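The instructor's notes for this session suggest beginning with a concrete chain rather than abstract definitions. Hand out the sequence below and ask the class to guess, before any prediction is shown, which regions might be ordered.
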Amino acid sequence: MRNPFRGKRSSEASKDKESSHSPHIHRLILSLLYLLATILLILVEIGNINSKPGIRSTYFFRIDLSNIVPQSIPNAVLVNSVARSIGLHDFYQVGLWGFCEGYNDQGITSCSKPKTLYAFNPVQILLNELLAGATIALPSDINRALHIVRVASQWMFACFLVGTIFTFLCIFIAPLGPSSHPHYYHRGRRILLRSVPLSIFTFLALFFTAAGSVVATVMFTIFRNIITSQSELQIDASLGQMMLGFMWTAVGLDLIGFLDQVGMCCGVLCCSGRRKRIKEKQVQEKRNG
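After discussion, reveal the predicted structure:
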């Protein structure tokens, strides 16, 4: 006699086999997601610390002084650019740890020594490099911008560093969220010891990464607008598109990871499994009967 439960058992077994592979794929995707975010944040961290290819192209902010209008040029002959004739470099670009300077026809010639909690101060740099007797005009609101940069740079540095650490740890911690068991298994313990802590941890990774990105974007946008506010000075300033792309992509990846953890947490909180357990009990009774 044919067993009526045989077909159901085989289909249930195949479903169980598929479901057992699902958490492993989920965990792998989460690890890869946070690995990519960590790589991008490391590129943000090391951007503009030297003149090596790739690193030199990753900067937050760039000032171009090649066409600056000087107030006085004592005994100088213009060569290649106005900036060079008064002792300045053609451009200065800023990273998280310092700045680099160079000429348009030579590229970067030198970079400052990496410094923690670095704050870019172009006025001090320019005054130190000007030839004796040479003077330049700077935007009137530059001192207000420097105060903003000095305060915000410290927060930006701390946020990116902490965000990178949390994102790196998420490579190993976030995959603990997916489980091969139904949501209602060990529900209370799973909420307190897994779902909620992981959601908080991934939120911290997102928060610090996003905070550093917001501070950097707003701060250097304000700085750019102030420096270019007086067009007659012919000072050009721009944001580093590659740096912006790296840090905001990392924010997006951290956001996906956080939303995934929140989704799993909500699934555990909202799924009591009472109906499922009753149905499983009835099926078991039929099999035994």
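Then share the key points. Helices lie at 6-46, 82-85, 122-129, 142-173, 187-227, 241-270, 274-288. The radius of gyration is 29 Å.
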